[in-house]
Amino acid sequence: MTIAAKSTAGPTGRSSPTRSPGRPEGRRFQQLRYRLDLKASPYLYIAPFFALFATFGLFPLAYTAWVSTHDWSLLSDEHVFLGLGNYRTLLSDPYFWNALGNTLSILLLATVPQLLAALLLAHLLTLRLRGQTFWRMGMLLPNVASVVAVAVIFSQLFGRDFGLVNWVLESLGAGRIDWQSGSATSHIAIAVMVAWKWTGYNALIFLAAMQAVPREVYEAAHLDGASRMQQLFHVTVPMIRPTIVFTVIVSTIYGLQIFAEPQLFGGGGPNGVTGGASRQFQTLTLYLYEHGFNRGFAFGYASAVAWTMFLVIVIIALLNYLFLRRIRSDS
Amino acid sequence: MTRPATVAAPTSSPASADPRRAGRTALPGRPARRARARMRALREQPGRLVYLTLVGVLFFSGFPLYYSFVVASRDNSALAQVPPPVLPGANLVENVERVFATVPFGTALWNSAVVSATVTASVVFFSTLAGFAFAKLEFKGAKALLVTVVATMMVPVQLGVIPLFMLMIELEWTDTLWAVIAPGLVSAFGVFFMTQYLRGALPGSLIESARMDGASTFRIFWQIVMPAARPAAVVLGVLTFLTSWNDYLWPLIVLSSPERQTVQVALSTLSGGYVTDQSLVLTGTMLATLPLLAVFALLGKYMISGIMQGAVKG
Lengths: 331, 314
Fold this sequence. Notes:
A: mainly alpha, two-stranded antiparallel ribbon, flat, B: mainly alpha, 16 helices, globular
């Protein structure tokens, strides 16, 4: 509101103190300025975003494709064109397939239970609770911790000798588990880290979507005698399907790029980069990191990994989308 | 997603499904009262089981963080005890001192603060600027450009790390904080978020009347849009700060000398030693997480509203 008072001086007050509104050139200049301001300003305002994003986001991603067709290393200035050579090497490397399998396994173990739990939690949060903000804050708390912190803390909890999880298992009569050394067990441990950090976050997203569902729909369902759980799965889930699709896709994109959790679970040292002594939990990003930054900077090869990952992400996101659309048309 | 198991026909007796509701619907009285009772039943007071579940969830949310504090306040040998310690010990100060002696943790905290503050300020400013243009200014191609912004939100830019690293070598920015700051200066999510907010929060008439008064577009931005955007700016700021503070892969790649590390990289250095000293590592973790917990305690409410707003509109 202060603008009204101040703007009597006008923006043109800045431009030239000698300006006299009566003179025609002065007015023409003013008009020109005004039109220029109106036309150019919007582009000027969005330019920083697009310029910076193109430079540090899109260009590198696109350039990755070019680098991936070369034998390109930081240690040599010569970049020999290989065509799809790097991709052939990649696809015939059993370690790559191992990493892909591990990544998908961790993704499934982390995402499916996490989103189901988030749905149930969100459902609870729609109830008329005392201290709503408190419960919501409590749910979001894990999301505040960094992935590094989460990985470090859970590596301790899942420790073989002094981990709390094993202690609990032992006092329940089950044996100790060497979480890190097994393939399935290490995937579970890593999935727990991911799920712990993101369940509450996703619950809040679901909650927001659930609150937008009109009350009358529930009333109708209630009158038809649908139980709470039936309401959740037959009313809420179909109604918030777009949000579910969104969350599944975002979680998938995130899950396919998991890096810090397995790296630190392996101790951060050489075992971290390979994802365990027998690569039992090496993910795709770890594999990329191993070739690109840990072993002679094979940028060409690592770029082929990155681009392949990109394709995998796009394909899986599409599959998710199509699959979730099918669910709607089924019911 | 698995198909729900509760496909039982809705005709299955409602009384057996939920005794509380059975009690409610059995309320005597006129239809109006019964309708009201039904409404109440829909949003009935949650039972003890609900609260018990929530308390359990809260326990699992908080316990790992609490436990890291327990370990951080004890010496390493305490971990070998049976049963393991669940209460804080007396070694916290000593452990903190050891963290600062092992890695330049103070510098790392400072570096992270500089990076996160710069990134946050930049993202909020440029997002508000672009959001204002998209929400309230008319220009050719606005729709297509906004669609581009939304599409780029999904792009896994993390996969561009190799050329990004090469770019930083060209610019001679490797092992400087600039290398970490530059890629974070703008965010597609931020632009989208601000566009959505300003669309609703800024009356077009206000801008029109300012124009009538002869205000330039930038003046309108500075004196009308910026103040109006403040609530959303806080939300976006908190979310951006957290993301930036917690960033790991890129700083790990591009920063090499110990005095350039961010907190997350310092933490991984701390935990990567051959002889792992858990109480040392978890003390570092605690120190790195405490600033975030403080931010969360102060501004967590805004974070929640930000996440929930993003969800509805996203």
